[in-house]
Design goal:
This protein is of the alpha/beta class. The protein has 17 helices and 14 strands. The strands form four sheets. The chain has a six-stranded parallel sheet with strand order 3-2-1-11-12-7, with helices on both faces. Strands 5-4-6-8 form a four-stranded antiparallel sheet. A two-stranded antiparallel sheet has the order 9-10. The chain starts with 7 loop residues before the first strand and ends with a helix. Bound molecules: 5'-O-[(L-methionyl)-sulphamoyl]adenosine. 5'-O-[(L-methionyl)-sulphamoyl]adenosine binds next to strand 1, helix 1, helix 8 and strand 11.
């Protein structure tokens, strides 16, 4: 993400809650990260692409309980569904971390212990508005603004008072503000950065980092115990955020290669606060370098409507699979990556739009260029790509090595800037240049004269080479 390329590239997606099955939101975030990982590997960097599942949520335990399963059984069932889905979508992640794995738990405990030892975590009383559906406390201001309902799900907030362990977030607000101001690329896109800055300037309060078990609750006993003997459990968000760190530590021990810090923490806009505020402050407290960039994309909506459980309109895996079966995985990638909510506005997944993009960009665009060129190669050269023939062609307007390398350079710049719609667009442009070249040089006419076959060969060689590059 940073403008100067470096040898290593570490990209991480959020880790996904295992209380439910994967849907387009999870697949989109991971597909974007996959595209970035593929690009950086292609560019010769040593890539670490991390994804995984967030399992110590109270919701996981409750959802399992409803089905007569232990939290671990339910978590494993869903973590497997995520792993299967990601394999099916051919994601090239280098690791898949589950927060219930000992390699994670041990390191989380060590981090929390360090924060306790340093006095960055202290015990106090907490009173606040608890959003049970999101498992997070909401500030008084936000609660009032949303009439004491969850800003995300609209369910009523509950007033909670409890003894708790707090992280001294307030101690880090000046350093965080300075970091964000000094590093314009730290939070992207720009609009999101401004939102976060605005909120930090209102002041940061210390945040609770543990929760007490409620006797009789299926979630009692689920989660990593606080190492201070309080009997409380580490708040799921603290546990989850540390996955990026614990997975890298684990990799470092296994391979000897340290990828820290992340080049990009890719997230959805709903969880930007955790990643752009709590996460960097935790890292400062642990004395670790911060990620180069926290990139928050927006949301997919469907046929103009927000996707929600109550509307039952989630674009789930079976639906995605249907599209992939009919149109191919590459077509799905093309649609999601060119039309997706990469910037600060939501994007609509509409069937008619999928078809329109498929026809315009793929069938009539790149597909058509490929089939014209391969048909001619079949017809005039028995399916073998002809050799280039220097001097056969007077094509001053088409300096192919120059054109292709310009496009490659532009595409690489766009990929480094995380602008994947543009990467794809540049591929399309190159294939349209091939169309223009064919239109201008008319190889199908030249082919009628056997003495000009070397010119035809030269044209088709350049077309094929440009399309390969595209
Ligand atoms: N477990 C937390 C993340 C912890 S990271 C340390 C979590 N999980 S989640 O499964 O609920 O969501 C994961 C991601 O999916 C979020 O980044 C969220 O924005 C994304 N999406 C969920 N629905 C989405 C859409 N409709 N569209 C695009 N992405 C959305 O939050």
């Amino acid at each position: 993400m940073s403008s100067k390329p470096r040898k290593q590239y570490f990209i991480a997606t959020p880790i996904y809650y295992v209380n439910d099955k994967p849907h387009i939101g999870h697949c989109y975030t991971t597909m974007l990260a996959d595209a970035a990982a593929r690009y950086h590997r292609f560019a010769g960097r040593d890539v670490f692409f991390l994804t995984g599942t967030d399992e110590h949520s109270e919701r996981v335990a409750r959802a399992g309980h409803k089905r007569g399963l232990s939290p671990m059984e339910w978590a494993t069932q869903n973590a497997t569904a995520f792993q299967d889905a990601f394999r099916e979508l051919r994601f090239t992640n280098d690791d898949f971390i589950r927060t219930t794995e000992p390699r994670h738990i041990d390191r989380v405990v060590a981090c929390v212990q360090q924060l306790l030892d340093q006095g960055d975590i202290y015990e106090g009383d907490y009173e606040g508005w608890w959003d049970a559906t999101q498992e997070e406390y909401v500030t008084e201001n936000t609660a009032r603004e949303h009439e004491y309902k969850s800003p995300v799900t609209g369910k009523p907030l509950v007033k909670h008072t409890e003894k708790n362990d707090f992280f001294r977030l307030s101690d880090y607000s000046d350093r965080l503000l300075k970091h964000i101001n000094d590093n314009p690329g730290f939070i992207k896109p720009e609009a999101r950065r401004n939102e976060v800055l605005g909120r930090i300037k209102q002041g940061l309060q210390d945040v609770p980092v543990s929760r007490a078990d409620t006797p009789g609750d299926p979630a009692a006993g689920w989660g990593i115990p606080m190492p201070n003997g309080s009997g409380r459990r580490i708040y799921v968000w603290i546990d989850a955020l540390l996955n990026y760190y614990t997975a890298n530590e684990d990799r470092k021990e296994r391979t000897g290669v340290d990828h820290w810090p992340p080049s990009v923490n890719l997230v959805g806009k709903d969880i930007l606060w955790f990643h752009a505020v709590i996460w960097p402050c935790l890292l400062m407290a642990l004395d670790k370098p911060l990620p180069d960039c926290v990139y928050a994309h927006s949301y997919w909506i469907r046929e103009g409507r927000k996707m929600s459980k109550s509307l039952g309109n989630f674009l789930d895996l079976p639906t995605l699979r249907g599209y992939i079966k009919r149109y191919g995985l590459d077509a799905m990638r093309w649609y999601l990556l060119t039309q997706g909510p990469l910037g600060a506005t939501d994007a609509d997944f509409a069937h008619s739009k999928f078809i329109e993009v498929y026809n315009a960009h793929l069938a009539n665009g790149i597909g058509n260029a490929f089939s014209r060129v391969s048909n001619m190669i079949g017809k005039y050269f028995e399916g073998n790509i002809p050799a280039p023939c220097d001097g056969a062609l007077n094509s001053e307007d088409f300096d192919w090595p120059e054109i292709s390398s310009q496009h490659v350079k532009m595409a690489c710049d766009a990929a480094r800037a995380f602008d994947f719609p543009n990467v794809f667009h540049i591929g399309s442009t190159l294939s349209r240049t091939v169309d223009g070249f064919i239109h201008k040089t008319e190889p199908f006419k030249l082919a009628k004269d056997p003495s000009r076959l070397n010119e035809v060969g030269d044209i088709l060689y350049h077309c094929a080479e440009a399309l390969r590059i595209a």
